[in-house]
Specification:
alpha/beta; Rossmann fold; five-stranded parallel sheet; 10 helices; 37% helix; 10% strand; globular
């Protein structure tokens, strides 16, 4: 069986297989060595994620191979402001931290050998968010701010360090680019192809650090170059 890499998160994960998406890029990169399994849930926060862990990942099959890695990409919805129109998605910062601990513990208890990689929420372009409300916005204010997203991003980094697990800080990384609002974000929150590229490259970097690389994963079935034109079936006897 090919090893699996699970992608677990909110809409930025659900959209990961869109054209130019970071999940699609991972699937292409690992096309002969690992299966990328998408588990993205648009609009979800960590409170809801904790409630559905058993349903998402199912019962443990003792004979099934553990995934080599799981990405955990939540926080953008947790960081919605409590006094704005998306308050029902808000999760207090301390609870967000505890929920990340719970998700990490659940995954490690289920698959001890799997690498768990946290990804922080992205930065927010507040002006553009006003142009993309997803429900009635009577206050006329953005439901998220970059400052709040930054606080949740730092909390994600802190919990990753506490758990001793890798973390991709895209909130910080994307803002290293002077034009990040346009080059990385399509609607002030979700990712452009450029933003997806950053996530792909940084996640791939972390996967390599934990040994999930093309150099270390076996190739599925003989390569075409290994098949003898005079005796093709010989390659399949190995």
């Amino acid at each position: 069986m090919r090893p699996k890499i699970y992608l677990f998160g909110d809409s930025i994960t659900e959209e990961a297989f869109n054209d130019g998406g970071w999940g699609a890029s991972l699937a292409s990169h690992y096309s002969r060595t690992a299966d990328i399994v998408l588990r993205g849930y648009s609009g979800y926060n960590t409170r809801w994620a904790v409630k559905m862990l058993e349903k998402v990942f199912g019962a443990v099959d003792e004979e099934a191979q553990a995934p080599v890695a799981v990405t955990v990409f939540f926080g953008a919805n947790d960081a919605c402001l409590v006094d704005r129109y998306a308050a029902f998605q808000h999760v207090p910062l301390d609870e967000y931290k505890q929920n990340l601990r719970t998700i990490f513990s659940f995954l490690k208890k289920r698959w001890e050998t799997a690498a768990i990689i946290f990804i922080t929420p992205p930065p927010i372009d507040e002006a553009v968010r006003l142009l993309h409300p997803y429900m009635e916005n009577p206050g006329g204010l953005p439901e998220r701010t970059n400052e709040a997203a930054g606080a949740y991003a730092q909390a994600c980094v802190d919990i990753a360090r506490e758990c001793g697990t890798p973390v991709v800080d895209i909130w910080t990384k994307m803002q290293e680019f002077t034009d990040w609002k346009k080059s990385c974000l399509s609607d002030g929150l979700h990712l452009t192809k450029g933003g997806n590229r950053i996530v792909f490259e940084k996640v791939l970097e972390k996967l390599k650090e934990v040994g999930v690389s093309l150099e270390k994963l076996p190739v599925d079935l003989p390569l075409f170059s290994e098949i003898d034109s005079k005796d093709p079936l010989k390659a399949f006897e190995k």
